[in-house]
Amino acid sequence: MANYLLTKGTHLYIVDSANAVHDISCSAISGVGGSRNTNTIQTLQDEAATIISGSMQPSSMSFTIYLHGSAEQKLIQDLYQTATVVDFAIGMSDGVDEPTYATALELPATRSWISFRGFVTDFPLEFAVDSAVECTITVQMEGAYTLAIKE
Question: Vertex 58, ends 36 and 8: CA angle to 5°?
Answer without folding.
Answer: 110
